[in-house]
Design brief:
By secondary structure, the chain is an alpha/beta fold. It contains 8 helices and 8 strands, in the order βββαβααβαβαβαβαα. It has a single domain, classed as Rossmann fold, CATH 3.40.50.1820.
Length: about 280
């Protein structure tokens, strides 16, 4: 079943993925071959996890790419089921919420956003009363429960794990890079909402750059060329961040711009490039 837009969900229209990925780089999955499971997690959230197994497992096991906003990301992949096959085997693990909506706007705002450094509540500035700051609890859930379950059910390569996210999901990918070195070898952040609790993300990046101990990792930063210039997720701050992080020892940084695409359109457009970059990297 394809996800459907959440009814009147906090005016989240700009975040709906387009009907299909751009054909040139689309990645597809066979909906009939998905493994689907549910898990209870932090803050009382119930998660729907959809696992697509593509190709044969390499000798060291499947590389695993975790996709945030799993209902919408898997819907975009299922809609491209006629796309050319990927080279090599991979496990795509779409972590969403147990709803038929594309997005759970309240749950993702909490799960994907980093906490304030001063310990004060991290309230979503766009929606009064909506809470954020739960990124560490969500990463604990991924690290301590989801990742071990994937390893128990499929042969996986513990050294080739990656994460992709868009907007608030892009923040989660960056927060994981900055605060949990070694958890993921690959991070893809599409149109990250860098203005969250400003200057929090600048401070996290600065602490990461100044840190003495970093694991080898790759970062793919992406943005749409038609995102509003005033948005903190637009190409200007994202491209600036890419330049700032280049030169960090052990970190490979790549930048990708999608000309003419809006913030919402960058969601699906970034999936194929992220998956292909993940597979084409060191293994």
């Amino acid at each position: 079943m394809l996800c459907v837009p959440a009814a009147m969900a906090q005016r989240f229209d700009a975040m709906r993925p387009p009907a299909s990925q751009p054909p040139a780089e689309a990645v597809g999955v066979d909906a009939s071959r998905l493994a689907v499971m549910t898990m209870d997690g932090p803050a009382g959230h119930r998660y729907r996890i959809q696992v697509a197994t593509i190709g044969q497992a390499p000798p060291d096991g499947y590389p695993v790419l975790y996709l945030l906003d799993g209902n919408a990301s898997m819907a975009a992949l299922k809609a491209a089921d006629q796309a050319p096959l990927l080279r090599g085997g991979v496990l795509l693990v779409a972590v969403g919420y147990d709803t038929d909506a594309c997005f759970d706007t309240t749950a993702r705002a909490l799960d994907y956003t980093p906490p304030r450094r001063d310990g004060q509540p991290a309230l979503d500035p766009r929606v009064p009363g909506r809470h954020g700051g739960g990124a560490d609890a969500f990463l604990d859930f991924l690290q301590q429960r989801v990742m071990p379950r994937m390893a128990a059910e499929w042969p996986v390569d513990a050294h080739r794990q990656g994460i992709w996210g868009h907007s608030y999901g892009g923040l989660l990918a960056l927060h994981a890079l900055y605060t949990r070195p070694g958890l993921f070898a690959f991070h893809a952040a599409a149109s990250p909402a860098l203005g969250w609790q400003a200057p929090l993300m600048d401070e996290e990046a600065g602490a990461f750059i100044a840190g003495a101990h970093r694991a080898n990792a790759r970062l793919l930063l992406m943005a749409g060329g038609a995102e509003r210039p005033a948005d903190a997720s637009s190409m200007i701050p994202a491209q600036s961040l890419a330049g700032r992080l280049r030169g960090v020892p052990g970190l490979q940084v790549d930048w990708r711009l999608f000309p003419g695409l809006s913030h919402g359109e960058a969601f699906s457009a970034s999936l194929g490039p992220a998956i292909r970059s993940f597979l084409d990297g060191p293994g």
